């Protein structure tokens, strides 16, 4: 009796949370299928009704927009490069932190944490000045560098926790088997730390993809402007009447890459990969 | 194949504590050498210094005719089986075994032949495509051994390989390891804290205590001629009994009565005051049964507190009181052996046919000729037969004999 009521409670709770989380998403999708005019006139119905539906027109319109396509391209490029570099650097750094005893190890970890806690907004001003002076303003590296510096600490902390979980004997066995330190790292440690690497990659990609503050402050043209910043410039023909349905369609398109990436990476994050390595 | 020479090896950690202190062991080509001792005696550290996973503070490590102190593990060409197996969980059994060969950039058909050979030897054929996570403890153990035997290593090193297995499997794997080593005839160093493994597997056994080599001898020599109290207490199960004793002529005065010992032994222990006598449980017997067999020795009467009948034999426990001087030494010994005995008692192994009952005052026969006498201050065995005791590092110096090295 108690058990069934527990189950019912669990299901009801999950549904409530899902509704709470997904309602805005559902609403955005609904908006993206409505025609511009029907939104301006006020049409609160959830499903696009007769004459108010726009079919795929909004999506076509957004996609035909040169500015939007550039922004998507920028976002994908910048986020992927930032993720890749960040994960490579974080993997090496985390391995050193987990395995080596060196002076200043605590200091490195503390500073990394301090950077992660630093408010992003307070850095925008100095960065803006520096980037203009060094010519990084409105370029891809101008965004990749701040993204990396803000995602590295988290990635290093996540990964070093993963590396610590891997028994020392794994590397020692590899070394006795004839591997150099680098071979032991590449052939044994990295495959074992794969879940951690992909976790770090997802977190980094999220940060880079969703960033708005850097994107809008450190860019001025389509040269490097990422999608969240670009959407805010998406004013359409009439600046006093924002094209809500087009924006909604743009927002939906902007979430597609991140869903794809998560689905790909999620398959790699298999818990318990190290089971069987040692007697448990 | 190669001999391994450890010459005055010292390992000091950062705090200056010597985990291994001036140990010299010479492992002959093809020999099965056991390093044994209670936890913290430095046996694993010594093994890891052979394979190159620990730096050597001082001394020479020579494998074959190369001094390997400064070589990386991969340059030493040794194979090691770790206590927790250290299999690569992301690789199949096949690739686990093939791993050292792949690193050596061996062609695929050669790898395949060697891996299948090793798998045949260890009966792993049907598991080659599985991942280590899906194997049982014994199978994982065999995969770890497969990885070791697949390449032509100069020596095998085992670090307590059986300690994670249950008792039955441990017995089987022990025999398996012995058979494999005899067949391959490869130099082997095997670390264990289990004295059964030490006795059954080893050609020679090195007993270590707190980083110091206590005795290096064959299992039989260790058992019959332990160099000191520690070795005497460590080797043998149930352990040797230690009793306070004084020697008068050829008679040894024990808490239960006096026992005759051979004249040459009595002579060596004469005039030393209070000693510790060591007698193995099986050198006692139910006096009535011993008399029937016509065995010579002494008898005494004592009250038996507990009797454990095991069918083929009977253990009888007889408590006794010992003077403080001896008690302190025995308590220290117990601590060294990781033991937790709370009382001083005599463990006596009797024939299974003995009718001695609990609480009864029984007549016990003892074979005095097999008794050892130890100096309570130093723990040194006064009655040791140096001819048949292998090497006892401390004793050589004391006797003025040239030290090896």
Question: Please, could you describe this protein's structure?
Answer:
The complex is a heterodimer of chains A (280) and B (405). By secondary structure, chain A is mostly helical. Chain A has a domain of 169 residues: MetI-like (MetI-like fold). Helices cover 74% and strands 0% of the residues of chain A. The radius of gyration of chain A is 24 Å and the shape is globular. In chain B, the strands form 5 sheets. A 6-stranded mixed sheet of chain B has the order 6-7-8-3-9-10, sandwiched between helices. In chain B, strands 13-12-11-14-21 form a 5-stranded antiparallel sheet. Chain B has a 4-stranded antiparallel sheet with strand order 2-1-4-5, covered by helices on one side. Chain B contains 12 helices and 21 strands. The C terminus of chain B is likely disordered. Chain B folds into 2 domains: 220 residues, P-loop containing nucleotide triphosphate hydrolases (Rossmann fold); 154 residues, no CATH class. The longest helix of chain B is centred in the middle third of the chain and has 18 residues. Chain B is α+β, with helices and mostly antiparallel strands and 405 residues long. In chain B, helix 2 runs parallel beside helix 4 and helix 3 crosses helix 4. At the A-B interface, helix 8 and helix 9 of A face strand 6, helix 2 and helix 4 of B.
């Amino acid at each position: 009796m108690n058990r069934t009521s527990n189950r019912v409670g669990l299901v009801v709770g999950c549904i409530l949370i899902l509704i709470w989380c997904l309602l805005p998403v559902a609403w955005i999708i609904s908006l993206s299928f409505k025609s511009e005019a029907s939104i301006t006139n006020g049409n609160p119905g959830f499903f696009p009704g007769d004459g108010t539906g726009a079919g795929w027109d909004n999506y076509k319109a957004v996609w035909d927009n040169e500015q939007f396509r550039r922004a998507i391209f920028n976002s994908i490029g910048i986020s992927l490069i930032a993720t890749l570099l960040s994960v490579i650097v974080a993997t090496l750094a985390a391995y050193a932190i987990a395995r080596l005893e060196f002076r200043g190890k605590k200091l490195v970890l503390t500073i990394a944490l301090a950077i992660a806690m630093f408010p992003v907004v307070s850095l925008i001003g100095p960065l803006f000045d520096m980037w203009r002076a060094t010519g990084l303003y409105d370029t891809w590296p101008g965004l990749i560098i701040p993204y990396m510096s803000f995602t590295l600490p988290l990635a290093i902390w996540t990964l070093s926790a993963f590396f610590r979980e891997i028994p020392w004997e794994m590397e020692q066995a590899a070394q006795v088997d004839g591997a150099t330190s680098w071979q032991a790292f590449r052939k044994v440690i990295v495959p074992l730390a794969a879940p951690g690497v992909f976790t770090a990659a997802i977190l980094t990609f999220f940060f880079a993809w969703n960033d708005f503050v850097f994107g809008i402050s450190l860019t001025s043209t389509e040269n490097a402007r990422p999608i969240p910043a670009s959407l805010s410039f998406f004013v359409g023909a009439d600046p006093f009447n924002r094209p809500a349905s087009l924006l909604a369609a743009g927002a939906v398109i902007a979430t597609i890459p991140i869903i794809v990436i998560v689905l790909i990476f999620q398959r790699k994050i298999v818990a318990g990969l190290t089971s069987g390595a040692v007697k448990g | 194949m190669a001999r391994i020479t450890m010459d005055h090896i010292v390992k000091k950690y950062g705090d200056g504590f010597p985990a291994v202190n001036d140990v010299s062991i010479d492992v002959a080509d093809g020999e099965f050498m056991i390093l044994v001792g209670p936890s913290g005696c430095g046996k694993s550290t010594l093994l890891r210094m052979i394979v190159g996973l620990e730096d050597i503070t001082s001394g020479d490590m020579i494998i074959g005719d190369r001094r390997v102190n400064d070589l990386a593990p991969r340059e030493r060409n040794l194979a090691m089986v770790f206590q927790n197996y250290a299999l690569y969980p992301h690789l199949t059994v096949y690739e686990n075994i093939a791993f050292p060969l792949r690193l050596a950039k061996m062609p695929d058909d050669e790898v395949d032949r060697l891996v299948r050979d090793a798998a045949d030897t260890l009966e792993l054929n049907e598991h080659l495509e599985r991942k280590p996570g899906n194997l049982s403890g014994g199978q994982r153990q065999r995969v770890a051994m497969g990885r070791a035997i697949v390449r032509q290593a100069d020596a095998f090193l085992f670090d307590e390989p059986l300690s994670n297995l249950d008792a039955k499997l441990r017995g089987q794997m022990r025999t398996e390891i012995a058979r494999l080593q005899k067949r391959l005839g490869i130099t082997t160093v095997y670390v264990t804290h289990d004295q059964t493994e030490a006795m059954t597997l080893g050609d020679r056994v090195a007993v270590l205590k707190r980083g110091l080599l206590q005795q290096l001898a064959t299992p039989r020599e260790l058992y019959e001629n332990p160099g000191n109290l520690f070795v005497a207490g460590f080797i043998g199960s149930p352990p040797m009994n230690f009793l306070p004793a004084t020697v008068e002529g050829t008679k040894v005065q024990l808490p239960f009565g006096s026992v005759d010992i051979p004249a040459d032994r009595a002579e060596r222990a004469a005039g030393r005051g209070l000693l510790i006598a060591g007698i193995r449980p099986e050198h006692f017997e139910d006096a009535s049964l011993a008399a029937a067999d016509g065995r010579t020795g002494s008898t005494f009467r004592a009250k038996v507190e507990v009797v454990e009948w095991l069918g083929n034999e009977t253990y009888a426990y007889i408590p006794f009181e010992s003077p403080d001087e001896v008690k302190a030494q025995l308590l220290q010994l117990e601590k060294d052996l990781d033991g937790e005995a709370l009382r001083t008692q005599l463990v006596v192994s009797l024939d299974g046919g003995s009718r001695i009952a609990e609480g009864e005052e029984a007549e016990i026969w003892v074979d005095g000729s097999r008794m050892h006498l130890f100096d309570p201050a130093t723990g040194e065995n006064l009655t040791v037969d140096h001819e048949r005791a292998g090497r006892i590092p401390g004793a050589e110096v004391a006797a003025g004999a040239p030290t090896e090295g």
